[in-house]
Prior knowledge:
DHBP synthase; 2 domains; binds threonylcarbamoyladenylate; L-threonylcarbamoyladenylate synthase; nucleotidyltransferase; Threonylcarbamoyl-AMP synthase; ATP-binding; nucleotide-binding
Amino acid sequence: xxxxxxxxxxxxxxxxxxxxxxxxxxxxxxxxxxxxxxxxxxxxxxxxxxxxxxxxxxxxxxxxxxxxxxxxxxxxxxxxxxxxxxxxxxxxxxxxxxxxxxxxxxxxxxxxxxxxxxxxxxxxxxxxxxxxxxxxxxxxxxxxxxxxxxxxxxxxxxxxxxxxxxxxxxxxxxxxxxxxxxxxxxxxxxxxxxxxxxxxxxxxxxxxxxxxxxxxxxxxxxxxxxxxxxxxxxxxxxxxxxxxxxxxxxxxxxxxxxxxxxxxxxxxxxxxxxxxxxxxxxxxxxxxxxxxxxxxxxxxxxxxxxxxxxxxxxxxxxxxxxxxxxxxxxxxxxxxxxxxxxxxxxxxxxx
Length: 351
Ligand code: TXA
Ligand code: MG
């Protein structure tokens, strides 16, 4: 492979792909760029390496991780390695969206990927679209030095547990420092984590909304997508997803979600006030036109459309947090389906 060149001028030499693959094969951790967010990756079949992910993140070890697989043969090599059985609708979703930002929870083959799966009898698989992630996965599947074949990289988002997910290599560095090998694949295009569909319950169940919408999933597989609530109403055992923890994606500042009217009223109350040290203490992230009449407030505009809003969301939350504000006031996104992913992350950040 020739050097990877990204839009922002970042260049990645092929040796760095090989170096990262060596680290993973040796049981180490790496910062992995994907099209959604950066992952903290390790060999999914090595329980010691997977244990390092949980320790580094401070994540409870019974929380299952997503396993990333190579795209040659449409991801089927990885699927055959980890999965006992693939329902027809899951197969249709793979054909429609892989490689891409969709994770499928599938029945796990006994004896493989147990630590990555947090001991569950299912496994979350995703075939990422980012060329650097794919290059590392390909290098691991086809070791040049006759080394061991690695079938998948277990990778949760590369942030400390409960914090904002990283969408640039610099974000990952700020979480884990110089000891972690990070491949810089430029800023993540999608910006929020993959859509997760549980395929182990007879009907597809939406565990986490993302940039691939519920409608797109239903259209691709011709099945109705159940929500977690609908599944619970059918009295089945609740699915587990760390994204279901109420507080998640949280910056240090307190995040409040309000509609435009409530925001304007709150801003009006501050009218004319000045911060004692002349620095803003509130960051405002809004889409509607609002009047700000106090230097207490630093205003930022949210993109009008869901995709660019998702792309910059985590970066913006980090940027506003870094300004040292105490509060982040966010205008609640529209109630329409294409905003489901962004609304979900903001609701958790505010919980
Ligand atoms: O976009 C993404 O999915 C990113 C990038 C790095 O690929 N990864 C990511 O991983 O968000 P993580 O570990 O932060 O989120 C994994 C989610 C959790 O909510 C977890 O509970 C769920 O996937 N999950 C994974 N395996 C599962 C399983 N076997 N059963 C139920 N949920 C599972
Ligand atoms: Mg995460």
